[in-house]
C-alpha cells in the first residue's frame, strides 16, 4: 500500500445504495482512505451492488470480472457490499476468488475492521442480519462532504413482501430511525451548507408506525420543514397503499416540500396487482393520484412499471398503458419482469415469453417517451425556480432541479451554486430542460 490510500466506489442501484456509498466513504475516511474517481489508481475498490432485478445482478458479476487481470498486475483490495453481497454472502468469495471482502446491508459498521483484516491478507464475508435494537444504534450518518443536497436515511427494510420483490430478503424487515436523530442530522447538514434533503426509505409512508410514541412520516416532514435555512425537502419511495391523507395534506401545507412524488403503480390491472401482492386496486391508486393533484395542482408524478409479470395477458398490459395515460407520469422506471430468488412470484405459473415481455416494454417506453417530451415542451417559456447544484456534464453550464425534480441546464456564473434562482425555460429535451437565467425583478 502507498502512503496515501485511495478509495474508489462503484455504485449500482437505487438512491439507498448511493446513500450507503456515501456512508462507506465516511467510515473509511477514518481508516486513511481518500476517495478517487480513478479505479486504476485505487488501493481499495468497493462495489456497492443491487439485486432487485436479474439484469442488475448479472451486471455486477460482469463488472467484477474486469478486475481479475488488474489484480495480477498490482496489489489492491476489492470489496463487495449491498444487496448482491447480502444475497450471496460467502459464496461470492468462492465464485470470485480475487475478491477480498463481502459485507451485507446490515454490516456497514463492520467495514473498517474488515478492511483492516483484508490489508493483512484475511478474506471475510459478513452478512448477518442484526436485531432491531442494535440496528437503531448503528444507523451510520454522513456528517461531512458538503454539497448542496443530501440524502438522509429515515427507515430501512420492508414488510410488504410484494411477490416479485427481493428487498425484504436482502434489506431485512422494516425499522424506523429515531426522529430526534434524523432531525439532528438534517440540522447539522443545513449548518454545513446543505439546502435540500431527500429522506430515504424502502417505504417512507410507513415511517414510525411500528414505534409507539414516534412521529408519523407526515409529522416528521413538518418538524424538518421548521428547520431554518433548509429550502427544500424531497422523499422516496412511497408505497401507494400506505400514503395517508395526512401526508397528502403536507403537499398543500408545507412550501418546502417539493411538488414531486415517486409513486410506483407497477401495473394497471387489478388481476396483476393482486398477483403482485401490492395491496391496492387500480381505482384506489387513481384516487390517491387525484387527491395528490387536488392538494398540489402542479405536482409531478413519476412511477415504476413492470411488464411481463406471470399471468399478464394482453388485456392486462393494455390496462397498464391506459393507467399511464390517465396519470400522465412525467417519467417512469420500466422493466421486464425477472424472477428473484426466494420471492413468491418466482414459482407462479403463466410465464410470459421473453420476446413478448420485451415487445411490451418497448411499447411502454415509447408511450412514456411521448408523454415526457410533451410535458417538457409544456414548460417552454415558463419561469421555474431552480436550486443550482453544480456544473453540468458539458462543463460550460450550471445545472439544477425544479421543485418537480426536472433537471435544468443554463449558462450562469458558478458562484450561483447553492442558490435558488429563477430560470426561463427555452427548450425541452427528453431528459432535461434548457434555460436562461431570468433577469432580477
UniProtKB/TrEMBL annotation:
CDD domains: Radical_SAM (cd01335). GO terms for molecular function: tRNA-2-methylthio-N(6)-dimethylallyladenosine(37) synthase activity. Its cofactor is [4Fe-4S] cluster. Keywords: 4Fe-4S, Cytoplasm, Iron, Iron-sulfur, Metal-binding, S-adenosyl-L-methionine, Transferase, tRNA processing. [4Fe-4S] cluster 1 binds at residues 14, 50, 83. It comes from the Bacteria. Binds 2 [4Fe-4S] clusters. One cluster is coordinated with 3 cysteines and an exchangeable S-adenosyl-L-methionine. Residues 144-374 form the Radical SAM core domain. SMART domains: Elp3 (SM00729). [4Fe-4S] cluster 2 binds at residues 158, 162, 165. Residues 5-120 form the MTTase N-terminal domain. Catalyzes the methylthiolation of N6-(dimethylallyl)adenosine (i(6)A), leading to the formation of 2-methylthio-N6-(dimethylallyl)adenosine (ms(2)i(6)A) at position 37 in tRNAs that read codons beginning with uridine. Belongs to the methylthiotransferase family. MiaB subfamily. Monomer. This is tRNA-2-methylthio-N(6)-dimethylallyladenosine synthase. The lineage of its organism: Bacteria, Pseudomonadati, Thermodesulfobacteriota, Desulfuromonadia, Geobacterales. The gene is miaB.
